[in-house]
Design brief:
Blueprint: E1 2-3, E2 7-10, E3 15-16, H1 23-32, E4 46-50, H2 56-67, E5 73-79, H3 85-92, H4 102-108, E6 114-118, E7 121-127, H5 130-136, E8 141-146, H6 160-168, E9 170-178, H7 183-191, E10 194-200, E11 207-213
Parallel strand pairs: 4-5, 4-8, 5-7, 8-9
Antiparallel strand pairs: 1-2, 2-3, 6-7, 9-11, 10-11
Length: about 210
């Protein structure tokens, strides 16, 4: 489904893939600023995401990395319900300042999983239920984008067991950021080893959450 012809809405969870107000501004506020990026980027820095979605967060990361002259950045996204190439192209079309990066994503796209290069970022998408795919992942992230659909609509992606795996797959000193400040999510992330902070959210969202692993 599409809201106003531009914003994709999940038919399974009845939730938009990004903010109706300004998806790119939300990404920068929540996921980039929330993880203190691009300031922390260094060669070999690893970003992981629960909920690859349209790839908007990945492209915003790549744009920020290019602007910061960062090199050798890794990104891994976990996605249970991959969109089609055509849906991704339509969803990203309004973000004209990312237009130069979109072809790199679309050229490498496969709903069966892929690895592609976007500027200084080597990006991988792992399809399937993250409750199974994340435990099998051999990597560890320096920063996490936790961008599943709202916990009330998509509780599976916010289960304590999965968030414990997020903690397990986070490097020492690593971070997370998410748009939600739901109490049960913050408690689960604290139990996963993060020092959790509630911050002002984007737009109409009063609060969001960030955290660092000791």
């Amino acid at each position: 489904m599409w809201r106003d012809g531009e914003v994709p809405v999940s038919s399974q969870f009845d939730d938009p893939y990004f903010s109706l107000e300004n998806g790119l501004a939300e990404t920068r506020h929540v996921f980039l600023d929330g993880n203190d990026l691009p300031a922390r980027l260094r060669p070999g820095f690893s970003v992981a995401e629960l909920g690859f979605g349209t790839g908007l967060n990945l492209l915003a990361l790549a744009q920020a990395a290019i602007a910061a002259d960062a090199v050798d950045i890794a990104y891994t996204g976990f996605e249970a319900f991959p969109l089609t190439r055509e849906e991704i192209a339509r969803a990203l079309a309004p973000f004209t300042e990312l237009a130069g990066l979109v072809p790199g994503l679309l050229a490498g796209w496969s709903a069966e999983g892929f690895t592609t290069r976007i500027g200084p970022v080597t990006a991988r998408m792992i399809p399937g239920d993250a409750r199974r795919t994340l435990p099998a992942w051999e990597g560890r992230a320096d920063a996490w984008f936790l961008d599943g659909f709202a916990p009330a609509r998509n509780p599976e992606l916010w289960e304590p067991g999965l968030l414990a795996e997020v903690g397990h797959h986070t490097a020492p000193g690593g971070s997370f950021a998410t748009y939600t400040a739901a109490g049960h999510v913050r408690r689960a992330l604290a139990e996963a080893g993060f020092e959790v902070t509630r911050l002002p959210g984007f737009g109409r969202k009063r609060h969001m959450s960030t955290g660092r692993k000791a």
